[in-house]
Write a structure and sequence with these properties.
mainly beta, 111 residues, 7-stranded mixed beta sheet, 4-stranded antiparallel beta sheet
Length: 111
């Protein structure tokens, strides 16, 4: 069974940083692209960052220069380092592979 376990969310002030981590199990992790997405009330689901199995990355425009996605195939984890956080980054963040989603972790950016 494919499982994704996300962690690392929390409350942070504008300009602060958080690091999200997703632990994967149940499949050949190194062979698959991984993604982080987020969902906000009223804005729907947005793809934030992708990392391919060759470590190529892609970001939504609003995340470029602030967020960094990375993967560790030995540990079977994919992380999202988020810097210079803004209130509009507030959302539930999900890691994703194919049709499988983690449980989500809440990120709140507020003073």
């Amino acid at each position: 069974e494919v499982q994704l376990q996300a962690s690392g969310g929390g409350l942070v002030q504008p300009g602060g940083s958080l690091r999200l981590s997703c632990a994967a199990s149940g499949y050949a992790f190194k062979n698959f692209a991984m993604s982080w997405l987020r969902q906000t009330q009223g804005k729907g689901l947005e793809r934030v960052a992708d990392i391919m199995n060759d470590d190529k990355t892609a970001y939504v425009d609003s995340a470029k220069g602030r967020f960094t996605i990375s993967r560790d195939n030995a540990r079977r984890t994919v992380d999202l380092q988020m810097n210079s956080l803004r209130p509009d980054d507030t959302a539930v963040y999900y890691c994703n592979v194919g049709s499988v989603w983690g449980q989500g972790t809440q990120v709140t950016v507020s003073s």
